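Q: What changes when pyridoxal-5'-phosphate is included in the input?
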Amino acid sequence: MNDARGGQPITLDRWLGHYALRASGLSASEVRALFAVASRPEVVSLAGGMPYVRALPEDLVRSALESVMTNEGPSALQYGSGQGVPRLREQILDVMALEGISASMDNVVVTTGSQQALDLVTKLFIDPGDVILAEAPSYVGAIGVFRSYEAHVVHVLTDHDGLVPEALREAIAQLRQEKKRIKFLYTIPNFHNPAGVTLSAERRPEILAICQENDILILEDNPYGLLSFDQPVPPALRSLDEDGVIYLGSFSKTLAPGFRVGWALAPHAIREKLVLAAEAAILCPSSFSQMVISEYLAQADWRGQIDEFRGVYRERRDAMLGALDEHLPDLAWNIPQGGFYIWVDLPEQLDSKAMLPRAVTELVAYTPGTAFFADGGGRHNLRLSFSYPTPENIRVGIRRLATVIQGEQDLLDTFAGTGILSLPSVSENVTAPPPDMS
Ligand SMILES: Cc1ncc(COP(=O)(O)O)c(C=O)c1O
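A: The predicted holo structure follows.
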């Protein structure tokens, strides 16, 4: 048999029986094929969480790059420290200071995006079956990592003010009763992906106190924290607790994801293990990327540039909120104060995953809510991202989405009571997302 595209023979995977058990957690999503179609230019994609890198002045990046090559070429092209370039680690302290964090550069570990930091922390702490607590919903890329280490992800109720402390207490008590080992709480307190919500200032000390009382480490993932639209930047959980929190940061949303540079700020004891794990995984993060970012931070008005990004994303959020008000007034959604995402509640009878093929036919794409749950939840939700499309395209996309939802409702009304279009069971497997779904 030949592949229709490349003429390559298609063979069954000869090594299927050899994979480690945990590799079964790495399965391709059936929505992956749809997203391949959704990347066509005529489709308005509200699915991927891509930053609008065109808002970054190219000349500033080019100038940083040229300085690095002129002045430090041989080091930039060489292997470097497993912990990261010292000058950049020092500059990262300035970035985190904007969120009230004071720390030592000794405890900063530079990683290949914060995604790698997520992987390393999970590798260090999780044995198969260990529990990770996470918001409901949670970041799809983290769920994928947790699954690959065979963790048991338990979602905790999350509302418009973020993680609900009472629900966290109850979940811990219940798990303790079941003699489960809870290893850490994974949380995105600011401008959550995908929920768009921010943990309120009142809840922050409470969440920290609950974790302290129960000896639970916090993994604070904060790639969007500086992208606040109107309010001051929220202080990080790490700014309130030095020993109980591993903080993850990234240059992906405030500069560019193409550099693949993020970092972890860890309590001193953990930091050592993290560096060893990073060295075992990749020897060292890219010297070249780190040095270009370091030079950019030294030369450019990076704080001003982040303000530019805030303005761009605020305008896009407003365009999306306006279009939702106009075309889908009967649905419910949150109003994000920063970041990239709006989380939409659909009527109970609509299934966002089942509806996606119709959406792609109508030339609009979104991410179904099920991608953000480890337990099959989220069928009546979808995530919309406003970071990448222009305001004009956002309006076109939401208008199309309204047509999709209306069409789906009409179809269900037509077959109501016949049982022909009943929803599949909740236990249906939720599979890994396509690559642009961060
Ligand atoms: C919540 C969250 N954490 C981590 C990441 C990974 O970011 P990075 O590009 O730094 O690996 C993303 C990317 O979208 C994200 O949304």
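Observations recorded in class: The longest helix spans residues 302-327.
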